[in-house]
Amino acid sequence: xxxxxxxxxxxxxxxxxxxxxxxxxxxxxxxxxxxxxxxxxxxxxxxxxxxxxxxxxxxxxxxxxxxxxxxxxxxxxxxxxxxxxxxxxxxxxxxxxxxxxxxxxxxxxxxxxxxxxxxxxxxxxxxxxxxxxxxxxxxxxxxxxxxxxxxxxxxxxxxxxxxxxxxxxxxxxxxxxxxxxxxxxxxxxxxxxxxxxxxxxxxxxxxxxxxxxxxxxxxxxxxxxxxxxxxxxxxxxxxxxxxxxxxxxxxxxxxxxxxxxxxxxxxxxxxxxxxxxxxxxxxxxxxxxxxxxxxxxxxxxxxxxxxxxxxxxxxxxxxxxxxxxxxxxxxxxxxxxxxxxxxxxxxxxxxxxxxxxxxxxxxxxxxxxxxxxxxxxxxxxxxxxxxxxxxxxxxxxxxxxxxx
Length: 404
What we know:
This protein is mainly alpha-helical. It is built from 16 helices and no strands.
């Protein structure tokens, strides 16, 4: 794997840290700005919506410059957003900083996926994408717990200044290690949007929303589930999330390796297993040991779907992959928001803190149905093309017989 992937992984590490670390620092931020916890929660919601909106917008703006230069500009935007958040004199300013930083998220992963795939041989593309996403998964194991600890010990502003420093490292890494790739000739915004007329691209994005959304249906409410149902102390949630993060790292690497060999079979297995494990979590959450094991499996199975889903979009939008790749990153965040909302509905209905697991299982199962449908449509289209080619070949080789 090229060393340039390390630079992309460092950028991904910083982005992953800033996305999730706010969840552990909400009480400190709320107290500092004298707002309620639900109001402080807008820092999470605003970031997620910023990713969904910013992914296509920033990618569209980036069609006029080289991919390396755009990655560097996105890192600058990320640094500026985190510095603004860290130095914010008022809550509204910090919210603006979060949105600014979020605008770099989707486009960085979308463009980065294309760059990573172009750096390696065709049979190693998914592995290269997974290597970049390793930065995001490691952020949940190291960056988020460490950032939370630092923020609780020395002040939350310190954490965001340090995250901005990670952005500087990512910027320098991209500038030094990522090779200059000329802007693809003939690529226009209209050409990029044409990829969304491909039903396979839309199906892959729908699988992204439903499949990874299934993970967040459970993880969003993991604290009350682990404390009120499994019986863990509130202080144990940090290391439980580390277990979840370790599962994400393993699943991401394994998924990237296997996706290059058998992409669709991997999606079948991982989505089916994810739906099953989420359903079982309703029962295993009542025991400390089985709850911890199941949580790790959810992280592994959930992120085993990320490299194949991202590669599926790149493959199906091969003529104009950049915008489709970035929008698919936004689809992950859209799925997270949708699943969190649905999970909250079933809890509010009085079904208990384990009820979101059933929501997650249903979402993952729905993604599996779409994966099967996508393969069936692909086989049908391939068969049609084969018959058309065979018919044309027969007509071309037919030689009329002349009578003497």
